Amino acid sequence: MTYVVTENCIKCKYTDCVDVCPVDCFREGPNFLVIDPDECIDCTLCVAECPVEAIYAEDDVPDDQQDFIALNAELAKGWEPIIEKKDGLPDADEWAEVTDKLDQLQR
To answer: What is 3-82's CATH topology?
Structure first.
């Protein structure tokens, strides 16, 4: 089982999770993070660190977020690793509670 970043991360991209990851499995896109399922060791450390509760165990991803399992795997192949915490996006707090924002994802 791996962990999956879901829709809540879009346009927020807080990187608190990156700081605690022992294997550097996070990949960074313009306004979203993903977890490389081939690198994730299922340690659970990232889950508690995410301020917008965007990270789930693969088996616990909500039904309306299931597409993010494949999306994380797909995008992880082309995005660069992120290994240090950075500031969230400038308007992250405004987007933190917004739902249905998949159309805002920048590849």
So the answer is: Alpha-Beta Plaits (3.30.70)
Taking only the tens place, the pLDDT of each residue in 18-32 is: 999 999 999 999 999
DSSP 31-94: S-EEE-TTT-----HHHHH-TT--EEEGGG--GGGTHHHHHHHHHHTTSEE--S--PPPTTHHH
| Domain boundaries, given as residue ranges, for the chain | 3-82
Predicted confidence at residue 44, as pLDDT, reads 96
Residue at 58: amino acid letter: E
Global confidence as pTM: 0.96
Strand, coil or helix: what is 29? Answer: coil
